[in-house]
TrEMBL record:
Name of the coding gene: lolD
Organism lineage: Bacteria, Pseudomonadati, Thermodesulfobacteriota, Desulfobacteria, Desulfobacterales
Domain ABC transporter: 10-231
Annotated protein name in UniProt: Lipoprotein-releasing system ATP-binding protein LolD
Single GO MF annotation: ATP binding
Keyword Cytoplasm belongs to the record: no
Pfam families: ABC_tran
């Protein structure tokens, strides 16, 4: 996988986020303070609907908070204009969604090359990197399968390959095993662990699986709009 990635130092300082829907105001995140150092593996747990995805979307700059700052290696992320924000998302963050969001008509290889094309990179290097990372996640024999033809576990591995092909400092995974059986679920967690070890990238995983959460360096729970440290 070439040169090592490195986790970034990231802090949330007084982050708040509310939604209003149907005349009801919902305060999902309330003045959240939370820091992570580079290379940590963090599990985020909490009841359904408590705000885990909301938190992850803000950490990944997919959504803006109503108040508070996100500081990444000393830079105030949301103070930047949309162009720089897109740059942060594209270069610093890798995002794995619960339902992978692959393009079903495109091959595994094309899906993994896509983020690099979006960055404006092209050429043989992009293909080689995509092939290498697909090999790394055990899919060297599925490069030219359409994403829609792969099994659930294979699709999620392609999604992880796509998230890390740009060598992000931070990998955010929102219930990446939510739709997988126990064996596939363990394999995905092992893969995330190995990538963390090999590259030094920070890994933040939202999971309902307390046993898998127990293997992470830190476990935090979202409760009453706050991040509570468990370990
Ligand atoms: N765009 C939105 N507009 C209005 N309400 C929203 C919006 N997005 C989320 N919510 C509400 O905010 C709360 C937190 O949602 P979120 O998806 O962050 O929870 P979660 O902890 O990830 O849930 P789950 O474990 O079920 O995936 C929920 O009650 C949800 O209904």
């Amino acid at each position: 996988m070439g040169d090592a990635m490195r986790g970034a130092k990231l802090s949330l300082e007084g982050i708040s986020k509310s939604y209003s829907a149907g005349g009801v105001e919902l305060d999902v995140l309330k003045d959240v303070y939370f820091s992570m150092v580079g290379g940590e593996r963090i599990a985020v747990t909490g009841a359904s609907g408590i705000g885990k995805s909301t938190l992850l979307h803000i950490v990944g700059a997919l959504d803006r908070p109503d108040a508070g700052r996100l500081i990444c290696d000393g830079v105030d992320v949301f103070a930047a204009d949309d162009k720089h924000l897109a740059g942060f998302r594209n270069r610093t963050i890798g995002f794995v969604f619960q339902f992978h969001h692959l393009l079903p008509e495109f091959t595994a290889l094309e899906n993994v090359m896509l983020p690099r094309f979006i960055r404006g990179e092209k050429g043989e290097g992009v293909r080689k990197d995509a092939e290498a990372i697909l090999d790394r996640v055990g899919l060297s024999r599925r490069l030219h399968h359409r994403a829609g033809e792969l099994s659930g576990g294979e699709q999620q591995r392609v999604a992880i390959a796509r998230a890390v092909v740009g060598r992000p400092a931070i990998l955010l995974a929102d219930e990446p095993t939510g739709n997988l059986d126990g064996k596939n679920s363990s394999q995905i967690h092992e893969l995330l662990d190995e990538l963390n070890c090999e590259t030094g990238m920070t890994v933040v995983v939202v999971t309902h699986n307390m046993e898998l959460a127990g293997y992470m360096d830190r476990q935090v729970t979202l409760e009453g709009g706050q991040v509570v440290e468990r370990t």
